[in-house]
From TrEMBL:
It is found in: Membrane. It comes from Phenylobacterium terrae. SUPFAM superfamilies: MFS general substrate transporter. This is Spinster family MFS transporter. It is a multi-pass membrane protein. Residues 28-477 form the Major facilitator superfamily (MFS) profile domain. Keywords: Membrane, Transmembrane, Transmembrane helix, Transport. CDD domains: MFS_spinster_like. The chain crosses the membrane at residues 66-87, 94-114, 120-141, 153-175, 181-203, 237-255, 290-312, 324-343, 349-367, 388-409, 453-472.
Length: 482
């Protein structure tokens, strides 16, 4: 467990709250991490199921992007701010627990969807629930831990992203292989009920310990407009927000199509790998199940390590010079571009999967530095709202636009290539069972190349993220207030 979640003297935080005893802090941080893992399990399970859902409901890559990204993100992002405003005043554990129950129930309902519209509506419901998780959680964590361990604590919480993705990939793929994609949604929704109850009844609301001075400050809570005015003067905030949004655009854009890339471009090798590893494990492993295990274990564990590494680097070197908070995410954003492109271009699926481990490590280094900086450049009573505004930007651009942009680009590139042989994506979707083998082969080749080059083109945006992180170094010292 991260040092942010353990030990440390019981010195008051900058809100005037005395941190909880070390034992309780471990428990609370562990529970919040588990809740965030469930958050991302329910959010990301749809990605490993994208190909069977597409085939079953006869969808395009653009529709997959809309379902996995924009439909979820619109409500998730827009509801985040009002829920965060509520979290500035009300009981944060109750808000978190209620949110868990809502998104878990809506995830289970995805399993009964009979068409694209129904699935989109249920994914919207998941987004509504998940909007109530991270802003109040960030605010709680900032009250639970000392200032000097803030980036590490938030990075520990942010491990829920790769670890939840890991569980979603493995659980979703294996269950879909054995029982179908609908059952995977049912199983994904079950754990949330338990965690909802634990959040409501065992997480403490530390505001009960507030000093009288801070209570007076809290009584005059800043309006949303006042918070925006403060943030308007913080150049650091806007640069890290848009840098992180671009990183999220790339990550969320890739998520629904990574398994599809392997299934379309390395079909035979993936099937052989599944057969080999299935024999070693002693059960029948299909291609989707193998990819869920490989992508989950390799990118998920690497992503968790990257998140912890980013928080550790930020706290260690940021104690001497706050500009160090921006160095690691900037450099990682640049290095990950050639790493990812090479994974897309190598002929071997096994080698590509190994290269993606490096990408997984580099791709999450920004979590702790970005979330820690956002909490440090505003007064305590503005933190939940600031977190929600940051997530609004990250998720509207990243989650809202990333999957649909990559999906549309994939369809566009495939159509461009297919038009040269008198076909189209729609024509390929409409192929009858008895269609000529040459036609099917042409469709498979060009649709596979479409997703490959969509993934490559989108990863090039990392250059912009690098530039924004590097520029944020110039103002982070003057913008930090706590």
């Amino acid at each position: 467990m991260s040092s942010a979640a353990t030990g440390a003297p019981a010195a008051a935080t900058d809100t005037g709250i005395t941190p909880q005893p070390p034992g309780y802090r471990k428990y609370a941080m562990g529970l919040l991490l588990a809740i965030y893992m469930i958050n991302f399990l329910d959010r990301q399970v749809v990605n490993i199921l994208a190909e069977p859902i597409k085939n079953d409901l006869n969808l395009t890559d653009t529709q997959i992007g809309l379902m996995g990204g924009l439909a979820f993100a619109i409500f998730y992002t827009f509801l985040g701010v009002p829920i965060a405003r509520l979290a500035e005043r009300k009981n944060r554990p109750i808000i978190i627990g209620t949110a868990v129950a809502v998104w878990s129930g809506m995830t289970a309902l995805c399993g009964i969807a009979q068409n694209f519209v129904q699935l989109v509506l249920f994914r919207i419901g998941v987004g509504v629930g998940e909007a109530g998780c991270t802003p109040p959680a960030h605010s709680l964590i900032t009250d639970y831990v000392p200032k000097e361990k803030r980036a590490s604590a938030l990075a520990f919480y942010a491990m829920g992203t790769p670890l939840g993705g890991l569980l979603g990939l493995i659980m979703g793929g294996l269950i879909a292989d054995a029982y179908g994609w609908r059952m995977a949604f049912f199983v994904a929704g079950v754990p949330g009920i338990l965690f909802a109850l634990l959040a409501i009844f065992t997480l403490k609301e530390p505001r009960k310990q507030l000093s009288e001075e801070f209570k007076r400050t809290q009584a005059a809570q800043p309006s949303f407009g006042e918070t925006m005015k403060v943030l308007g003067g913080k150049r650091t905030f806007w640069f890290i927000a848009f840098a992180a949004a671009i990183k999220a655009f790339i990550g969320y854009g890739h998520a629904p199509f990574t398994a599809s890339f392997f299934l379309r471009n390395h079909t035979e090798e993936v099937a052989n790998l599944a057969s080999f590893f299935g024999a070693q494990l002693g059960f029948n492993l299909q291609s989707l199940g193998f990819l869920s295990l490989a992508l989950g274990l390799m990118s998920g564990t690497a992503g968790a390590a990257g998140s912890l590494l980013g928080g550790w680097l930020a706290d260690k070197f940021g104690a001497k010079d706050l500009r160090a908070y921006m160095v690691a995410p900037a450099i990682a954003s640049l290095i990950t571009i050639p790493v990812y492109v090479s994974a897309m271009l190598v002929d071997s699926a096994a080698l590509a999967l190994c290269i993606l481990v490096i990408n997984g490590l580099l791709g999450t280094i920004w979590y702790g530095p970005v979330y820690g900086t956002a909490q440090s450049i505003v007064p305590p009573q503005m933190r939940a709202t600031t977190s929600a505004i940051l997530l609004f930007i990250i998720n509207l651009i990243g989650l809202g636009l990333g999957p649909v942009a990559v999906g549309a680009l994939s369809d566009g590139i495939a159509n461009f290539r297919l038009n040269e042989v008198g076909l189209s994506v729609d024509a390929c979707r409409a192929l009858a069972e008895g269609a000529a083998g040459a036609t099917r082969a042409a469709c498979a080749e060009h649709v596979g190349e479409g997703v490959r080059w969509a993934l490559i083109v989108s990863t090039l945006f990392g250059v912009i993220a690098f530039a924004f992180f590097w520029i944020a170094r110039r103002t982070i010292r003057e913008d930090t207030v706590s």
